[in-house]
From TrEMBL:
Organism: Streptomyces similanensis
Example GO biological process: proteolysis
Subcellular localization: Cell membrane
Family statement drawn from the similarity comment of this UniProt entry: Belongs to the peptidase M50B family.
UniProt protein name: Site-2 protease family protein
Lineage, uppermost ranks: Bacteria, Bacillati, Actinomycetota, Actinomycetes, Kitasatosporales
Transmembrane segments: 12-32, 41-61, 90-115, 127-150, 162-185, 206-228
The UniProt record lists the keyword Transmembrane helix: yes
């Protein structure tokens, strides 16, 4: 792949991202130790901050892969600093996905970095750039679920276990939704270089509405039920029970009050 040169300042990690990491670390510690007076607030801040970190890494993966694929402009655009405010649309990339987590516990794909595709040569490179983001979510999900499938939960506080389970659910949903071959999503970006010109021209007008189409489908009860059945099956394969993810979401939504069932098993 092409090796691109960027200025050191283009690669310097943003203080904004460092601050988000600090929030993740502090609230993770508070969740683990039970330091917080209201554990739900600590879980909410921990999961939200960790989710934003994963969104930043998702976009960084796109940009970094594009850089080595030939688009040397990503550095000047600030995409390599992990600063969420530098993305194409901070509202779509960060704010909207966080709102959807709060509303429904879905890892909604965010916006995207702007890649100058004309600088990229080779269909495989184009596909890899699109796949890099959701693959980051897959890696994040593996890390979150590692204590479960490695049977390494001895001594892990229940609140922290539940928080990890819910965070894993978000990563799995984000990976699956991102990999859907729907125009506007990364999954379509993976297969688009292999489509004929005529097909791409016919599909192009629908790209801005792809995410809205997926969101609308998820509001259909039967589709929503089938989707989360798949998510639950994947999580169970990774060692996370329905109770873990349910109680994680219950703790996260602390404003709804404590769940008696989860309070008993904590």
């Amino acid at each position: 792949m092409t090796t691109a040169t960027t200025r050191p300042s283009d690669r310097r990690i943003s203080p904004v991202f460092v601050g988000i990491l600090a929030v993740t670390a502090v609230t993770g510690w508070a969740t683990w130790t039970g330091f917080a007076e209201q554990p739900g607030v600590a879980v909410f801040l921990f999961v939200t901050a960790a989710w934003v970190v994963s969104l930043c890494l998702h976009e960084y993966a796109h940009a970094r892969t594009a850089l080595h694929g030939g688009d040397i402009t990503v550095g000047a655009k600030g995409y390599l600093t992990l600063n969420p405010l530098k993305y194409t649309h901070a509202l779509l990339s960060i704010v909207l996905p966080v709102v959807f987590v709060i509303m429904g516990g879905i890892g909604l794909p965010g916006g995207a970095v702007f890649i100058e595709r004309s600088r990229i040569r080779g269909r495989w490179r184009h596909s890899l750039i699109s796949a890099a983001g959701p693959l980051t979510n897959v890696v994040f999900a593996v890390v979150c679920t590692a204590p479960f499938w490695l049977d390494a939960l001895d001594g892990v506080p229940a609140d922290f276990r539940f928080a990890l389970a819910f965070l894993a659910l978000l990563q799995v949903t984000a990976a699956i939704l991102n990999f859907l071959p729907v125009p506007g999503l990364d999954g379509y970006g993976v297969i688009e270089p292999w489509l004929s010109y005529s097909v791409k021209r016919q599909v192009e007008p629908f790209a801005p509405f792809g995410l809205l189409f997926v969101f609308a489908l998820l509001w259909v009860p039967s589709v929503n039920g089938a989707f989360f059945d798949v998510i639950d099956a994947i999580l169970r394969t990774l060692g996370i029970t329905d109770v873990d993810s349910y109680c994680g979401q219950s703790l996260y939504r602390f404003w709804e009050g404590s769940d008696d069932f989860c309070s008993v098993i904590r």
